[in-house]
Amino acid sequence: MSADSDKGSGTGGAATRAAAISALAKWLRIGVFPSRSLPESSPFASEIVMGVLRNLTALDFAFGRFCRRQPAPPARAALLVGAWQLLFGDDIPDYAAINETVEAAKRARAALPSFVNGVLRNVLRNREAILGELAAAPLHVRTSHPQEIVERWCKAFGDERTAEICEAGLAVPMATAFALPRDGLSAEEATAALATRWRAAGIDCPPEVGNGSLALPIPHGVRIADLPGYAEGEFIIQDKAAFATVADFLEPQKGETILDCCAAPGGKTMQAAARVGGEGCVIALDNSEGRLARLRENLERTRLGDRVEVALCDAASPELVERFGGRRIDAILVDAPCSNSGVFARRPEARWRWSAAEVARLAKVQRAILDNVALLGARRIVYSTCSIDPEENDAVAASFAEESAGRHVLLRSRTLLPSSDHDGAFAALLRRV
Description:
The protein is α/β, with parallel strands linked by helices. It folds into four domains: 14-137, Orthogonal Bundle (N-utilizing Substance Protein B Homolog, Chain A); 145-170; 175-237; 241-432, Vaccinia Virus protein VP39 (Rossmann fold), CATH 3.40.50.150. Helix content is 45%, strand content 14%. A seven-stranded mixed beta sheet has the order 7-6-5-8-9-11-10, with helices on both faces. It has a four-stranded antiparallel beta sheet with strand order 2-3-1-4. Helix 3 (56-64) packs across helix 4.
């Protein structure tokens, strides 16, 4: 295997590690999402970066004792990459974790490769002691979450449940496929047909009931785009918690017109479009043309574009009512921008952007969107987030209902806390009186 090869038998080449180091160094310097700096052709580099982000505090704790001061971003990034391999990487030989990372540090111009080499060898020599100390460390250290949010969760959910949430944030999240009901097939029939195709391709994923529908869990390491039925648009990839927002709360009916605010990349849009049928319509809005491009690609793949009207529009702006105020809209989905605290496993960089001030700012944005979409007169509104913070969830939905002068009532709400089986999420159903 060449030094530049990808993960293969358990070792990635120096070039792969250099890509991970460069992406992490850029993030440490200026906050650019590491995923945006990685080549799509390097899944092992992505695995390294996501692993580092999920274990950031623990990794700093592990090598910090061997550094007199915090290393500069390039050197810190190299140490993070190497320490993650030594402590948490599966099937990566120690010699590769150190030697290839030191070579990668040279390629990524991380400076002081001898320093990186020395620190990583100290981590290796003291690995068992480090892991033992981590196991006894405070919750926010051993699970790599901001201390402030852990303390906040303890007050909201209790110590035991908070520990479970933080542990879930360390896991590699599951990918789940939901077959789209169409061409006369029910969701159950479409799922069974898809499972049969996958078994013929050597992928055995028994269907499971997930939030009112059959789902097919996708094993780690399987490339989704290579799955039978993906190119034909027979299924969508969606977490069970997100699926439940549409299935259990929005409940689109045949022939309805649904307004999906903040719609990109389109998972909920496609789910709703499959349910309203050819007689119905989904109006999908987003305030980013770049995100709408991804939504259009997904609609083209699933052949649902004829049921979806895509529009560039800010759901909190007066333009919303000007453009759609005269339309009959049966239901509105407000999948609001949020802190992403329910999906820290899937988007680990979000935990390092979290702050109480940002949560307070987002709550004002969420409420502004709700107030604006209510002017369209839909009979029901589903307000959802992928946050588990009560300030973004129950507080926003309840205040909207209470201050609507009797025009809207909060029928029910649900917070799903993150687990090994699904992300965290919130949904509330509001009905116009």
